[in-house]
Each structure stands twice: as structure tokens, then as C-alpha cells.
Amino acid sequence: MTTRLIKFYLAIIPLLVAAAGFGLGHISWTIYLPIWLIHTILMLALLWYLGARVLAGKEEVPRQQAVMALLLVLPWLFISVFFGMGPPPATIAAWVHTATEQQARYGILMGCGILATGGFTLLREELKKRGERFYSTLGIAALLMAAPLFILNMAYWGGFLTRSFSTFINTIPDAPRPDWYKAMQGLFYSIGLVEVALIYLATAAFAAGLKKAGLFRSGPCRLYILFSLLGFVLSCLPSWLPEPFGSISYFVSIPAIPLVIPYLMGLNLLQRSNDLSS
User: Which of 53, 205, 55, 206 is nearest to 119 (CA)?
Assistant: First the structure.
């Protein structure tokens, strides 16, 4: 029962972060940073109980599974700080006012993308050992195409936009935007669309690989596949569609959202590594 409660709490963290981020909006860093640090300590303790303590053991297979699991789980340890940052500012002035936080936001996301890619790379090797090659190869191929696009997109949002907005607000805020700026907007809209879609497809492929290799039961794998493919379809919806499709497409395309299913996979892998060492 204790393990179930811990796993339930850890599983709903993305939901809690999204609800607090959109519900509360931006709050002072002097409030959300101490809360996040307390939550980080709690989350690390729960992960240790769930299976991370296997890392201190000597059994090779459970330790390898624990490492790949943590690489998939740890992104949400850092993303959880977004509950206090709220969604990205809607105005240039608000963006410039919180420039340091925006740079931190997209720097964190960049690091999270690297961690998740590492976790999936190790997972692919585990699936290959178990004789599953087709789905894991499709998944890693999609992910290796998505990863550089993801990093580039995060650099655009955290670096290029922040610097551009600072320039705009220090000159003439209402002046027409230069053509190169509009061209960059169009380019990175396309880049964001492609990288998010590829991450959803990669996640679905790895879920199919986990099912075929017998690492997870069929039920959870089918849910992973279903929600990943649903995310893929919704993220590809054109922006001109009427509501609520536009808002739904925006939500599933938020950079942190495609990392939710990998996070849940990681929690299951972590518990499995603990079961193997028992």
C-alpha cells in the first residue's frame, strides 16, 4: 500500500505542476524556490524508496534499469519548479521583466531533453538484449532527429527571444518588427511542431517495444501508445481551427508535456528494478 501511494503521488506530479502553473500564474521566486527545494527533497526520498536505492547495490541488471529509469524521471524533478514560474509571459514587457526566469526555464528544458534522450538510449540497449529491435530502432531514430531540434528550439525561446524582446523594448516597443524576426518566428514554429511530433512518435514506438519485450504488462503499454499517438495528432492540428482545438494543440505542444509519458515509463522501470533486486 505504501508503494502504491508513493507511486500515485509521483505519477500525478505533472498534473499538479500544470494545475498550479496555469492556476496560480507567476509568483515570486522567494516563495516558489523554497517550496520547490522542499518538494525536491521529498521527491528524491520517494524515488529512493520506490527503487533508486538499487543503485547502492551490487546487482548489475537492476542497477542498469534504475539508471535508465532515473534519466527518464529526473526531468520532472526540475520541471516541477515551473509551478511558480507559471506559463511564459504573454507580453514583451512581462517577458523582459522576468528574463532571468525565462532563460532558466528553457535552460532547464534543454537539460531535461538531454536526460530523456540518454534514458531512451539506454532503454534501447536493454530492449535489444531482450530481442526487440524493430520498435526500439524506430523510437531511437525519431528521438535522435527530435533531440537537436528540441535543443535548438529551447535556445531560440530562452536566448534569441529574450535578447530580441530586450532590444525591442529599449527602442520603440510599437515599431513594426523587422522581416528577419518574422522569418525566424515562422522557422521555429515549424521546428517546434516537428520536434514535438517526433518525441510523441518515439515514445509510442518505445512503448510498443516494452510491450513486445515483455518488460511491462500490455495494459500500461497500450495506454502509453494511445496517449502518445493522441498527443502526436493533436500537436499537428493547424492553428486556424476553432476552439477548443487551438488550446488543446497548444497545451500538448508545451515542451514539458511530451516528457510526461517517458516520466511515467521511468517510474515503472524504477519499481521494476527494485522488484528484480528483491
Answer: 206
